[in-house]
Amino acid sequence: MAPLISVIIPTYNRAKFLADAITSIVGQTFPADQFEILVVDNNASDETKTVVAEMIARHSSHAIRYFFEPKRGSVAARNRGALEARGGILAYIDDDIRTTNNWLHAIDTVFQDPSVHIAGGRILLEYEVPPPRWLECFRMKHRAGYYLGTLGLLDLGDRCIHIDARFVWGGNFIIRREALFVSGGFHPDMFPKDLLHYRGDGETGLAIRAKQMGYKAWYIPEALVFHRVPKERMTYERFDNGYFRQGVSDSYRSIRNIFLDTGRTIKRRGMAGVMLAKSVETAKKQLRAMKHHFNVLMQRTDEEKALFRRFQNEYWKGYRFHQKAVKREPALLQWVLKKDYWDDTIPHSDFND
């Protein structure tokens, strides 16, 4: 018998979308007794709890469970979902996602193969209003399709294929429970502005670690979901914010690479290692970015070229912000270098005052 699938929805102040997400899962062409839905309320201040209670009452034939997680940040909510789940397969989606009705069936079909441990599904976008023309410039090519990370778009074609672990995204992230725990669980992500220095590389860090443990990542095209894109997400300012946060995440990863993945210790490297992480990773990323943008900028308008420069500048602001914060605050370095985040209590530091 196939293992139970636990659908986990971490949520924060998106009650207006949450009901649609749950409804889409309840409407699956998949037996109700073979999956459960866990909603993890990450200390929301809106009507989230009421919405879930209404869904539970309305769909009593389905196992829908609600959990309140007071700790801030998505790592706490994702971890809580994993710890509370009864299923052998954990399927994470965002709270503004709408699944297609054969989503669970597609997941179940692929995970019948015991060698499959981690996978991501196709993510298409549902725009609230027609997107601006400049948005198309940031859609990146992949050997099998294309993607737009800032909005969560991932379309790698119609075939089930092996993919780099970095393309298993949190909006449609499926992993065997055993593999999640063996790989150490999720890294921190999605903190509010006042805790942004605690941000890490989220599900990407988990996926990379799973790859290092020998688990191959798969792309499941028929496990299709639609991601809502409201008007306010398609502005220069929101992209500024997205690129800044990506810079923070990449700084976090570069520091871990220096101290952990290379086997060097804090005692041997000290803060010099942090600065080395900055210089080496910055140089590599700059070279890759220059190579890519040299090939595409000649076809862009002056406005689009200016946007590339603007968003890249925000990325480096985020990267430098995090590097400086780690250099200043020893407790933050210890947070970055944690073996895992099952104890996701944020350490006290000057930043918390």
Structural class: alpha/beta
- Helix run count: 10
CATH topology of the largest domain: Spore Coat Polysaccharide Biosynthesis Protein SpsA, Chain A
- What portion of residues belong to β-strands? 15-25%
Q: N-to-C SSE series?
A: EHEHEHEEHEEEEEEHHEHHHH
CATH architecture field of the largest domain: Alpha-Beta Complex
- Report the helical percentage: 40-55%
CATH class of the largest domain: Alpha Beta
| Main sheet: strands, sense, barrel | 9 strands, mixed
N- to C-terminal distance: 52 Å
Overall number of structural domains: 2
Number of strands: 12
The average pLDDT score comes to: 88
Shape: globular
Could you give me the name of the CATH homologous superfamily of the largest domain? Spore Coat Polysaccharide Biosynthesis Protein SpsA, Chain A
Cα-atom radius of gyration: 20 Å
Which segments are poorly predicted (pLDDT under 50) over 5 or more consecutive residues? none
Description of the structure:
The chain is an alpha/beta fold and 353 residues long. It folds into two domains: 5-233, Spore Coat Polysaccharide Biosynthesis Protein SpsA, Chain A (Alpha-Beta Complex); 237-352, no CATH class. The protein contains ten helices and twelve strands. The strands form two sheets. Strands 1, 2, 3, 4, 5, 6, 10, 11 and 12 form a nine-stranded mixed β-sheet that branches. Strands 7-8-9 form a three-stranded antiparallel β-sheet, with no helix packed on it. The radius of gyration is 20 Å and the shape is globular.
